[in-house]
Amino acid sequence: MMVLVLSSCGERVKPNYIGVKMENWGKEGKKDFKNVKGWVWTWFASVDLYQVGLYEQKGEAEKNLDLIAADNTEFHIFPVYTYKAIEDSAVSIVFNNKQVTGGGSKFLKSVEDEILDPAMKNIISSEIRTFTTEQLMETGGSLAFENHVDSVIRAEFKRRGFRLEQFVARLTFTDAVIKVIDDRNKVNQNIGVLTQQIEEQKKRNELAQLKKLENQIQSEGLTKQILTNKFIETWGGKTVLYPNPTFLKVLE
């Protein structure tokens, strides 16, 4: 009987939780809230105990978020995040969110559903409008968006007394955007092939020009020497030669 009476008069703070006791219905504001551990008496109606878990919590959207980028292109996001309550901020967490529907050990889950999750979705919806389709589609674009949103959510959670541990946006493209990406990849691939072919043709043209120049040099340089040698071989050096304009021109 004594055990039943005691259990109805109080509650024990669970392991890995921090208790926040509210007294006097919280009429005096934040000073009516304090951190507690162990067994807490809640005999009076004006007293209530909130339990804030200090372990890592996981939040996840119930369904895809259909969002619009800066240039009105639609994208899908299915975010997942983990977070922890900051122990030193437990009183602020309870005081600022005591209006949520769940109390006791269900308090933190209610804060997640009614406060943190909507805040996270609003941030994502707002920040994706600062990115264009081009930025999101380019190599590393999704990761850049995720890192940017992570930093904004991290700051917002800290302001509310929580530490964001991990955030994954899981951004996906609609069928229309995927088709645009595929078409663009094909165009880029074709451009790459054409560019390579153009460069190869340029090299062939340069090589042909060099060969032509080489032949021209050989023709202009060796022809005179060959003609001179042929003339000398024919002359033999025995016959007296009188100045011949053609011969002299060859010897020049």
Features:
single chain; 252 residues; alpha+beta; Tetrahydropterin Synthase, Chain A; 2 domains; three-stranded antiparallel β-sheet; rod-shaped; disordered N terminus
Short description:
This is Band 7 domain-containing protein. Keywords: Coiled coil. This protein is α+β, with helices and mostly antiparallel strands and 252 residues long.
Widest β-sheet, arrangement of strands = 3-2-5
Uncertain stretches of 5 or more adjacent residues: 1-7
- The appropriate CATH architecture of the largest domain is 2-Layer Sandwich
Could you tell me the CATH topology label of the largest domain: Tetrahydropterin Synthase, Chain A
- What is the CATH first-level class name of the largest domain? Alpha Beta
Question: What is the domain total for the residues?
Answer: 2
CATH superfamily of the largest domain: Band 7 domain
Major sheet: size, sense and barrel closure?
A: 3 strands, antiparallel
Apparent shape: rod-shaped
Radius of gyration: 42 Å
Roughly what fraction of the amino acids lie in strands?
15-25%
Distance from N terminus to C terminus (CA atoms, Å) equals: 134 Å
Question: How much helix is in the residues?
Answer: 40-55%
Helix and strand composition category? alpha+beta
Number of helices: 7
